[in-house]
Amino acid sequence: MIDWKYAWDILPALLHASLKTLLITVLGFAIAVVLGLFLAVWRRSRHAWLSWPATALIEFIRSTPLLIQVYFLFYVGPSIGLNLTAMQIGILGIAVYYASYTAEVYRAGLDVVPRAQWEAVRALNFEAGRAYRRIILPQALRPVLPALGNYMIAMLKDTPVLSAITVVEIMQEAKNLGAEHFRYLEPITMVGLFFLALSLVLAYLVRRLEIRMELPR
């Protein structure tokens, strides 16, 4: 049933589109893990002017679909001064969406750090940034790495949502090729294999990172 010649002919176009998928995933996740950390720290803050807005933002983003959020940024954003390309909107939208989830992951990791560690940091009068960087975060990150890895893979698989705002990533390219040649079996199958292979590679890399960060027994 599969036309191998046709599959070979469309492979370069799909590989080219896959670069956009990878770029969205890499940049989006890089933003998400950094922004998520700040949101988690702000949510845990004793200052209401920091914790309340952070909590409200996290809950709002987690409670609304990604598709609606990128639609809003793309179609409503220009009217409020957000003049970005579809690709930039896509990266921003998916990054902020997953930042709200990584924030909860970080919060769980920070809650696992023994209370004595926090008290020791305060007793030694550590500056906040140094305390998080040198003492707290190394202990908080180890147990949450699997969850962060899962969200990275989930972000990869959510990139086709951005085709709704004209971002031509690999899934949209597959649909375009299928409509052009009236054959969907080959392009859709190849896209499915691409996501499967890349998800397995990412899962393996995350596992290797987990092993590397394990404490010696």
Helix content: over 70%
* Element-by-element helix/strand order: HHHHHHHH
Secondary-structure-derived class = mainly alpha
Question: Roughly what is the average pLDDT, rounded to an integer?
Answer: 88
Please name the fourth-level CATH homologous superfamily. Answer: MetI-like
Major β-sheet profile: none
Tally of alpha and pi helices: 8
- How large a portion of the residues is in β-strands, by DSSP E? under 5%
CATH class type? Mainly Alpha
CATH topology assignment: MetI-like fold
CATH architecture label name: Orthogonal Bundle
Number of strands: 0
**Gross geometry:** flat
- Number of separate structural domains: 1
Distance between the termini: 54 Å
User: Whole-number radius of gyration?
Assistant: 21 Å
Q: Point out poorly predicted stretches.
A: none
Written description of the protein model:
It contains eight helices and no strands. The protein has helices at 4-43, 48-62, 66-76, 86-112, 115-123, 128-158, 170-181, 185-213. It has a single domain (4-213), classed as MetI-like (MetI-like fold, Orthogonal Bundle), CATH 1.10.3720. The chain crosses the membrane at residues 22-42, 80-99, 184-206.
